[in-house]
Design a protein that fits this description.
Blueprint lengths: L1 E6 L2 E5 L5 E4 L20 E3 L5 H4 L2 H8 L2 E5 H9 L4 E4 L4 E4 L3 E7 L19 E6 L5 E4 L8 H10 L3 E5 L8 H11 L3 E5 L11 H11 L4 E2 L7 E3 L2
Parallel strand pairs: 3-4, 4-5, 5-6, 10-11, 11-12, 12-13
Antiparallel strand pairs: 1-2, 1-14, 2-3, 7-8, 8-9, 9-10
The structure holds nickel (II) ion and manganese (II) ion (MN).
Length: 234
């Protein structure tokens, strides 16, 4: 399994069976992203909320690749109205892709307007995802969120993720200290920081976050990726 970082909160997970899952594809608008949109060719695109730094190039990529978009009911409705294929779901629900990979929607504490549309249409709630791979491993993608108790009692205790992708930028999401507490509550083996250093308002030193994680969450290892880098494991 590979987790490729495109910068900000954009990742592509390639599963053992080769399914390519792109998440929050903010690509062309991110000058830190080194990959041209045309080279991204996923099977599935997951969107956590309507903000343009997450919705990003989802529609263009879906158009080029025929990828299926997954989002909240409201985001899926918006995409279907533009003539593209989308599956809507909501918090607590699970959708199976090819009967091999499961996508579950979980809570996040954030907002979700489609801020790039003329009337800033409402995209439902902001959410996170649990991706359960063919081998049973679980990846928690938090999206944009503050720290909240269900990270411990629902996501940590019930879903039991192996890997967590957490925002650390502060201002619009939790900062490094709260994200280190989240890593502890989630009790994950690996944490990958995201949503930082894209622009000045979310400047953070990921090495300091890694120090906080080793202090607060013994047993959790921090993997810091630069845009373009990939983390791989079995
Ligand atoms: Ni946001
Ligand atoms: Mn954001």
């Amino acid at each position: 399994m590979d987790i490729k970082y495109y910068g900000h909160s954009a990742f592509q997970i390639t599963t053992q069976e080769g399914l390519k899952i792109l998440i929050d594809p903010f690509i062309s608008g991110n000058e830190k992203c080194l990959t041209p949109v045309e080279l991204i060719n996923p099977d599935v695109i997951l969107i956590t909320h309507g903000h343009s730094d997450h919705f990003g190039d989802a529609m263009e990529i879906a158009n080029n690749s025929s990828a299926l978009i997954i989002g909240t009911h409201e985001i899926a409705n918006f995409i279907q109205k533009q003539g593209l294929e989308a599956i809507g779901m909501n918090i607590g629900g699970t959708v199976s892709i090819n009967d091999l990979v499961n996508i579950s929607m979980v809570d996040a504490k954030h907002t979700s307007s489609l801020d790039f549309t003329e009337n800033a249409e409402v995209g439902g709630s902001a959410i996170g995802y649990i991706i359960t791979l063919e081998n049973g491993k679980k990846i928690y993608f938090a999206g944009d969120t503050g720290l909240f108790g269900d990270m411990k009692t629902v996501i940590g205790d019930i879903y039991k993720p192996d890997i967590a992708l957490l925002p650390i930028g502060d201002r619009f999401t939790m900062g490094p200290e709260d994200a280190a507490i989240a890593a502890k509550w989630l009790n994950v083996r690996i944490v990958i920081p995201m949503h930082y250093n894209t622009f000045d308002a979310i400047a953070q030193d990921p090495e300091l976050f890694a120090d906080m994680v080793s202090e607060k969450a013994a047993g959790t290892y921090t993997v810091i990726l630069d845009p373009g880098e990939t983390y791989s494991e079995e």
